[in-house]
Amino acid sequence: MLAPILAFDDEPTGGTSAGVGGVAPHDGGISNPPDAQPPDSGDDRDEDSGLDPNVVFDWPETLPGQSGCSANYYVGSFACVIEGSPVTVVGELTFDLIVSMGESTLTISNGRLSDLTPTDTLFGADLFGSLDCVSFQLSAHTENPVAAFGGTFTVELAGEFDPQSLEIIGQLTMTNDAQEVCRGAFQASPAPAPEVIP
Questions:
Q1: Domain for residue 152, yes or no?
Q2: What is the pLDDT of residues 104-163, one digit of tens each?
Q3: Which DSSP string do the residues of 102-145 spell out, in sequence order?
Q4: Can you tell me the distance from the alpha carbon of 85 to that of 83, in angstroms, rounded to the nearest whole number?
Q5: What is the Cβ-side half-sphere exposure of residue 137, based on CA atoms within 13 angstroms?
Q6: 47 in a domain, yes or no?
Q7: 167-176 long-range contacts, CB within 8 A, separation 24+
Q8: From CA 137, how far away is CA 155, in angstroms rounded?
Q9: Are 128 and 143 in contact, with CB atoms under 8 Å apart?
Q10: Is residue 29 in a domain?
Q11: Nearest-CA neighbor of 193 among 102, 107, 109?
């Protein structure tokens, strides 16, 4: 007596058999699950961003790394007291800060220091110096003094730049031919540049 022939699922029976999701239940693990990602092609090239890698941005009015230390026009005032005397000398100062190429400094250009004391001994002088944009220290001095009383004098200024307010505050020392010393303080802030009339 012969045993009956039985049909198994992994043998063709003339019909079609499908597992869950339409994948044959016995495919040897070859088919990917429905939510599987396609295999990596091995091509890691980034997509073109459309940006030109040769573009270089330049801010000539601001020194690298010091956003507040930039070219500007400054207006300020000063006051000092002559040693051994009750006399107070007051005045103003104006100057441009310009970028020095290749240096981390701004240079004073068109600087001027003038007396505003209400007397007949008015004086004035050119102002020269620079602002170090690393230490935020300003150093300046006067040259070519002109004084109504016929004498000459020199002024030394040492100040500190505030990168937030852009203000410069410091100490001032004035010395005249008679070696009289006037010590005080000064301050200067950015201001609209004066209009040049042709």
A1: yes
A2: 899 999 999 998 877 666 789 999 999 999 999 999 999 998 875 557 889 999 999 999
A3: TSSEEEEEEEEEEE--SSS--EEEEEEEEEETTTTEEEEEEEEE
A4: 5
A5: 3
A6: no
A7: 168/74, 168/76, 168/131, 168/138, 170/138, 172/78, 172/80, 173/80, 174/80, 174/89, 176/151, 176/152
A8: 17
A9: yes
A10: no
A11: 109
- Number of domains composing the chain: 1
Question: Which residue in the block uniquely carries the two structure tokens 């031919």?
Answer: 177
- Integer CA distances (angstroms), 180 to 78, 124, 126, 134, 141, in order: 17, 17, 20, 34, 17
Structural domain of 145: 78-190
**Straight-line distance from the first to the last Cα atom of the chain, in angstroms, rounded to the nearest whole number:** 127
Integer CA distances (angstroms), 138 to 45, 68, 78, 128, 153, in order: 51, 14, 15, 11, 20
Specify the residue for token string 């070219």. 71
Asked if residue 42 has pLDDT above 60, the reply is: no
For residues 137 and 93, what is the distance between their CA atoms, to the nearest angstrom? 17
Residue 37 located in a structural domain:
no
Residue 82 has pLDDT above 80, yes or no: yes
* Residue-level pLDDT at 100: 80
Binned at pLDDT 50, 70 and 90, residue 71 comes out as very high
CATH of the domain at 180: 2.40.128
**Whole-angstrom distance, CA of residue 93 vs CA of residue 121:** 17
Location of structure tokens 């003094």: 145
